[in-house]
Specification:
The protein is α+β, with helices and mostly antiparallel strands. The protein is 46% helix and 12% strand.
């Protein structure tokens, strides 16, 4: 089983300090930041004033934008807790490409897939994730905080793409992917505007009928993202704010648009449970198992409800 963690890098930083006699921050500056020309990269101690630091934003349960809470990211060192800029990320990527920081053989060793005991592989090596053979182009790099930051290094094309955002939310679209598609001329499509937050505000103020009526009016607008994921965000937001009946209606609406999708059926079953309707909850969990016999979440819920 694969579980992502960065704790081993914390141990590695202690080894580096022991071997070199340098504090980890000194080591980074001497052997990485300075050689790569990175002038705006710092260890993110929350009490230290960092020049031009951008404030962070997030959204609360009601999907209202607000200041993100303060966090001490220094506890993540060396597996995280470093603050940088787009320019410095690009410099870092180019220093990797140009072998300023690492030899080609070292990079190759870092990009070997992880092989699990059952023989399955994961495209994650030593600190870098990378694409597989099904991708149009090979690149390696890493995201941060659910796509709020990304670094993509394309060794064949000698291209580095990066972005950072001072905003953290539930799995936003990845701007670096979009930048890459434009640069490599893979697509001419524009990023689409997410609709879930707008529909949530309409639904909680004027009711779901207003949402569905508005949707019929604007559903052909190609600039808006009407994906299943956006609808699921709407339903879960309604559920999380105790609009349980509205959430159930929305899940049913999603099933009309995307029939027999197990994640929606599972969410609908859980919503029925919150509404204390065990019969309809059980019906949906059983339907999930009919479509996906190995679905453990549905199996667990059925066992809780029936004892079998």
């Amino acid at each position: 089983k694969y579980l992502y963690t960065t704790l081993s890098y914390n141990l590695l930083s202690a080894i580096i300090e022991n071997v070199t006699g340098l504090y980890f921050e000194e080591y980074l500056k001497k052997f990485i930041f300075d050689p790569a020309g990175m002038k705006n990269t710092y260890l993110d101690y929350y009490n230290v004033i960092i020049p031009y630091r951008a404030p962070m934003y997030t959204r609360n349960k009601k999907r209202v934008l607000e200041n993100a809470p303060l966090a001490d990211h220094s506890i993540k060192l060396a597996g995280g807790g470093i603050i940088s800029s787009v320019e410095d990320l690009l410099k870092f990527g180019n220093a990797i490409l140009n072998n300023t920081l690492l030899k080609s053989a070292t990079i190759d060793s870092m990009l070997k897939p992880l092989v699990l005991p059952n023989g399955n592989t994961r495209n994650y090596g030593l600190g870098f994730s990378f694409t597989d053979s099904t991708s149009k182009r090979f690149y390696f790099g890493h995201t941060g905080a659910w796509n709020s930051a990304d670094l993509q290094i394309y060794p064949k094309e000698k291209v580095v793409i990066a972005h950072v955002m001072n905003y953290r939310d539930r799995y936003p679209e990845n701007p670096s992917n979009y930048i890459a598609s434009i640069y490599f001329r893979d697509t001419t499509e524009s990023l689409k505007k997410p609709i879930s937050d707008f529909y949530f505000q309409i639904g909680t103020r004027f009711g779901l009928d207003s949402v569905f009526s508005l949707h019929e009016t604007i559903k052909t607008d190609s600039t808006i993202n009407f994906s299943k994921r956006e609808w699921m965000f709407l339903a879960s937001d309604l559920e999380n704010n105790n609009y349980i009946q509205d959430a159930i209606i929305t899940y049913i609406k999603i099933l009309e648009m995307f029939p027999e999708t197990t994640d929606v059926l599972l969410a609908l079953g859980n919503a029925y449970l919150k509404d204390k309707n065990e019969g309809l909850a059980l019906k949906n969990f059983r339907r999930v198992l009919q479509l996906e016999p190995n679905n453990q979440q549905a199996a667990i819920q059925i066992k809780k409800l029936t004892g079998n």
